[in-house]
Amino acid sequence: MTIKSTHLQDTFLDQVSAENIAVSIYLLNGIKLQGHIESYDQYVIVLNGSAPQLIYKHAISTIVPSQKITLKGL
Fold first, then answer.
1. pTM, whole model, 2 decimals?
2. Residues 41-69 pLDDT 10s
3. What CATH number is given to the structural domain containing 37?
């Protein structure tokens, strides 16, 4: 039997990335970054705004989508 484990953050990041929803990412030091999530893995997020940025997840406080979303598959 195969059990698929999906993490909530993966569901969220998949959806905002697939639907090309703009996000605001707040870092622990208070800096606000804006753009679209291009890709991500276990440790980083690639944000495409005015220029592509590689952001380490451990530096992120909050990710806020620009519009209301209903997470699919929950």
1. 0.87
2. 999 999 999 999 999 999 999 999 999 99
3. 2.30.30.100
